[in-house]
Amino acid sequence: MSEIKVQFGDVNEKNYELLRTLNSVTFPVQYTLSFYNKVLTYNKYSRLAFYNDILVGAMTCRQEEKDGQQSLYILTIGVLDAYRKHKIGSQLMDELLKLVKQDPEIKFIYLHMQVNNEVGLQFYKRFGFEIAETIDNYYTDISPKACYILKKML
Ligand SMILES: CC(C)(COP(=O)(O)OP(=O)(O)OC[C@H]1O[C@@H](n2cnc3c(N)ncnc32)[C@H](O)[C@@H]1OP(=O)(O)O)[C@@H](O)C(=O)NCCC(=O)NCCS
């Protein structure tokens, strides 16, 4: 399908309610208010994707130390259902890969994802992520409870 070119915006106090609405219709997990308060502090690697001033996608990511190395953890990447398969997720990921290149200290990117998320798995594999681990009882409120840890070395 044809690419829909998006414009990026930062997550801030004025627009994080929009991000909340987008995530609430995009993910099976309902994130808490404290999650969004924290996201406001993760704005270096979090972005909103707008098409004609409409929020159509978003990613939230934070830098963290893991296994003694600096890493980037993806909390969410989501695109509104009606706008999927138009390379909006890819533009968000390309932007993330561009941002992360600016910090050579960051050695890998990783995330948790429900094991039944086949579209998500295809998406991440396309960008060179691999299944590093499976955790059986990761989620408490959704089924299946198992998750993959997907990882991409930089
Ligand atoms: C995963 C998601 C972000 C992809 O966004 P998108 O804008 O539709 O993705 P793109 O159009 O950029 O697709 C890039 C690649 O992902 C894969 N992909 C995307 N949608 C797919 C589908 N329905 N079936 C199979 N592969 C798919 C393909 O490899 C695709 O490359 P191609 O277009 O050359 O075939 C979107 O489906 C989504 O928001 N899903 C719900 C939230 C979620 O599960 N996020 C991932 C966990 S954080």
Automatic annotation (TrEMBL):
Pfam families in the cross-refs: Acetyltransf_1
Keywords: Acyltransferase, Transferase
Coiled-coil spans in chain: none
N-acetyltransferase domain ranges (all copies): 6-154
GO cellular component, as recorded: NatA complex
GO BP of this protein: mitotic sister chromatid cohesion
Molecular function GO labels: N-acetyltransferase activity
Domain of life according to the entry: Eukaryota
Protein name from the UniProt record: Acetyltransferase (GNAT) domain protein
